[in-house]
Amino acid sequence: MNSTAVPRGASEPFRQLRALRRARKLKQEDVARKAGISREAYLRAESGQADPRMSTFLAACEALGLEVVLAPQHLAADVNAFIASRNGGVTAASMAGQPAGSAPAATPQGQGGFGSGPSTGEGHKPM
């Protein structure tokens, strides 16, 4: 497997996190440390060797400056189009090498390529 290939077992959200981490030239250790999880736990999640808890995913998103936004499936394409319109055409899906309109309904967004900025709504802590 070459260094840019995404492991076959990697889940889509972690595939997107891996693409963003690499685009920012960060090491797995950097993200894991900022997320407060072990490098091994992050490596297993990113490589698809483990099915991490939601708390691990959210911690990794926060470490990368992302906010997780849940959208109804029928609106996912519209949400991604809006993010792309506000972010120079870049969406979570495009970072992971997917064609437009194929992103999941749970869309990581935030600084550095996934949206216009973090939300500070109820239940969310500001970044």
Automatic annotation (TrEMBL):
Pfam families (UniProt xref): HTH_31
A GO term for molecular function: DNA binding
All copies of domain HTH cro/C1-type, residue ranges: 17-71
Amino acid composition bias (Gly residues), ranges on this chain: 110-120
Chain intervals for the UniProt region annotation (Disordered): 93-127
Cross-referenced PROSITE patterns: HTH_CROC1
Name recorded for this polypeptide: Helix-turn-helix transcriptional regulator
Organism whose genome encodes this protein: Cupriavidus campinensis
